[in-house]
């Protein structure tokens, strides 16, 4: 072989080795590990490696339109922008090996708004604009990541969680499945005047567990099920010629075919029903049963809700409370998100609370006074996890102070028994005595209004703490109208008090996300039993909860759920919809980490807690957790600017 040929062959070998080495490096990180091999090879072939010394500016706004996507291969890069407060520079992100920048500027074909600086000697792979544009067209994972950033990584984490759960549970479908995909047969229905005999014949002929009655336009007006038939037979209350109109359940629940299996499961749980009509363009198009939802790998959600609501003893309720923890495994396997899981947990917990109240009324007698059982805190926000304690109170109506005191003395013994019984069912007694058995939290509507007014007019540290608990409220049992009136008055008082809003915002700044000056570093406890851990609830979720609360209350939003508050704030133009989506994704991920942490503790027989060692997470989870904390920082910065803190 001639020398020139040998050099050429050696050069080809070196190039191939370099391509293979770069591909192996990229395959460690998303979205590159999701890309087809041909697309990844194309990317590597169109990249060039460039060195940046510590302190070098890599890309800055003054450079004009960004021409290259940078992928950090070695070293670290900081993204910096002028401070929102106009005094200095803020570090907005830290980019580690395997991460890329400035993606948004590349997609938007514009200059970057961030100055990217090498923190240490660093190597970056530079992908030219033309190749970037082609990959954006050809590669779905690359395009998804380019357009959605960390949100696409969050989808990947959710898929991994679901697959991990499905390996043990054998899940066969997703709770995100559209109901229209679960119905494979035409609905069986009848019209007015149908007899019980004819109804039973139709149900037997078509082998169905329900018969829907429709009007002339085929809109469902009633439903008759095998459960109803058993009741008729047991009571001996009907004969076979009796019109079905007299026996059916009127105004049956209905959803569109575009609704999800989760929507159906939640509706069944709330209403204790086993069938839902599918209605499209005001016409019956199908029927979904509990069996349709849970026939393959049963998630006994509706059955559990029914069993809770009919439990005959406190001991039975306590045992059922444990079933909720096992339910979470199944829900994860079927694709439920943290928001859906906390909603379901809260819904089932509400059933337990309601049944405890009913059992205590049966055992100790009705006090003869209408009252509403209020939930505060995480239960009030419908954000409960397996790790929860009691935050509750009582609302009643009274004509004056004397009558209020008389009613209170009649309700307090019952309230204390309810609190103790809930403790026996797994809802720990509140260490701060935020419970209905506390005379200060068993109040008439006027007393609650005066108490809330005192908090707003005198925003001391103690009152600000109370506002974070009491101002996330909703009714769990009893009449709801007076709670709505109370909330209307509360929102009006807050809207008229700019000082209180500002003090609430300042209070929301006290819990800082646990990331340091260099964002790759988590701030963890340095000593004691909590050494090397951070608090996912206080340091991670609370900044979002507090930020959403102050903005929602200041803008007259009734809903107490954090994610719903963000959505309504975006709909009203209070915050940018993209920011709201980023906050929602970040909150979603931290809650997912927290629930997985609780699951591990539950399975290992350890006490449930919120402190986590971030070093136990894989690199992808660490990356998204850092970004989630950064979103919490952004929210707090927005509050600082809005309220001039």
TrEMBL record:
Q: Which UniProt keywords apply?
A: CBS domain
Keyword Glycoprotein applies: no
Q: Where is the CBS domain?
A: 183-240, 248-306
Q: Domain of life here?
A: Bacteria
Domain Cyclic nucleotide-binding positions: 31-136
Q: Which InterPro entries match?
A: CBS_dom, CBS_dom_sf, cNMP-bd_dom, cNMP-bd_dom_sf, Diverse_CBS-Domain, DUF294_put_nucleoTrafse_sb-bd, GlnD_Uridyltrans_N, NT_sf
Instruction: List the PANTHER family hit by this protein, alphabetically.
Output: CBS DOMAIN-CONTAINING PROTEIN (PTHR43080:SF2), CBS DOMAIN-CONTAINING PROTEIN CBSX3, MITOCHONDRIAL (PTHR43080)
| Protein name in the entry | Nucleotidyltransferase substrate binding domain-containing protein
- Organism of origin is Azorhizophilus paspali (Azotobacter paspali)
- Taxonomic placement: Bacteria, Pseudomonadati, Pseudomonadota, Gammaproteobacteria, Pseudomonadales
């Amino acid at each position: 072989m001639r020398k020139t040929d040998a050099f050429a062959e050696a050069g080809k070998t070196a190039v191939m080795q370099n391509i293979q080495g770069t591909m192996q490096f990229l395959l460690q990180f998303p979205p590159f590990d999701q890309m087809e091999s041909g697309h990844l090879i194309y990317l590597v072939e169109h990249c060039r490696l460039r060195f940046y010394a510590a302190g070098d500016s890599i890309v800055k706004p003054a450079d004009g339109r960004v021409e290259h996507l940078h992928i950090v291969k070695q070293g670290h890069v900081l993204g910096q922008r002028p401070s929102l407060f106009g005094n200095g520079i803020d570090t907005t992100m830290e980019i580690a090996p395997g991460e890329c920048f400035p993606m948004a500027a590349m997609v938007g074909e514009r200059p970057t708004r961030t100055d990217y600086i090498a923190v240490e000697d660093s190597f970056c792979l530079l992908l030219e604009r033309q190749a970037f544009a082609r990959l954006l067209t050809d590669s779905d994972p690359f395009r998804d990541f380019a357009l959605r950033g960390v949100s696409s990584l969050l989808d990947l984490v959710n898929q991994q969680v679901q697959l991990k759960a499905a390996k043990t549970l054998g899940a066969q479908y997703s709770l995100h499945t559209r109901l229209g995909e679960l119905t494979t047969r035409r609905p069986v229905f009848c019209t007015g005047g149908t007899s019980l005999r004819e109804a039973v014949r139709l149900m037997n002929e078509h082998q169905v567990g329900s018969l829907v009655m429709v009007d002339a336009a085929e809109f469902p007006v009633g439903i008759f099920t095998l459960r109803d038939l058993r009741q008729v037979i047991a009571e001996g209350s009907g004969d076979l010629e009796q019109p079905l109109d007299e026996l059916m359940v009127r105004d049956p629940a209905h959803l569109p075919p575009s609704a999800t299996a989760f929507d159906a499961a939640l509706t069944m749980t709330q209403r204790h029903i086993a069938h839902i009509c599918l209605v499209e363009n005001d016409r019956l198009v199908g029927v979904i049963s509990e069996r349709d939802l849970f026939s393959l790998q049963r998630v006994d959600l509706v059955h559990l809700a029914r069993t809770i609501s009919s439990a005959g003893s406190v001991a039975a309720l306590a045992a059922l409370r444990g079933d909720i923890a096992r339910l979470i495994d199944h829900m994860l396997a079927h694709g439920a998100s943290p928001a859906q899981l906390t909603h379901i947990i809260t819904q089932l917990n509400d059933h337990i609370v309601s049944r405890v109240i009913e059992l205590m009324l049966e055992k100790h007698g009705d006090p003869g006074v209408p009252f509403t059982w209020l939930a505060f805190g995480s239960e009030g926000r419908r954000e409960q996890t397996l790790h929860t304690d009691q935050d509750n109170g009582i609302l009643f109506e009274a004509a004056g102070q004397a009558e209020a005191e008389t009613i209170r003395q009649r309700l307090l013994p019952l309230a204390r028994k309810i609190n103790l019984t809930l403790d026996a069912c797994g809802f720990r007694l509140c260490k701060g005595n935020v419970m209905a058995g506390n005379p200060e939290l068993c109040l008439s509507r006027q007393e609650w209004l005066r108490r809330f007014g005192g908090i707003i007019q005198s925003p001391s540290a103690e009152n600000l703490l109370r506002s974070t608990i009491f101002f996330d409220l909703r009714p769990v049992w009893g009449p709801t109208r007076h709670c709505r009136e109370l909330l209307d008055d509360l929102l009006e008082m807050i809207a008229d008090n700019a000082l209180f809003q500002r003090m609430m915002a300042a209070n929301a700044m006290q819990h800082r996300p646990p990331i340091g000056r260099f964002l790759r570093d988590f701030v963890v406890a340095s000593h004691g039993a909590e050494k090397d851990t951070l608090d996912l609830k206080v340091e991670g979720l609370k900044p979002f909860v507090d930020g959403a609360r102050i903005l929602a209350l200041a803008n007259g939003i009734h809903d107490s759920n954090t994610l719903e508050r963000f959505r309504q704030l975006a709909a009203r133009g209070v915050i940018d919809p993209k920011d709201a989506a980023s906050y929602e994704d970040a909150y979603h991920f931290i809650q997912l980490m927290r629930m997985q942490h609780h699951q591990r503790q539950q399975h290992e027989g350890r006490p449930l807690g919120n402190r986590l060692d971030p070093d136990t997470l894989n690199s992808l989870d660490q990356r998204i957790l850092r970004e989630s904390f950064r979103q919490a920082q952004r929210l707090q910065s927005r509050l600082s600017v809005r309220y001039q803190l």
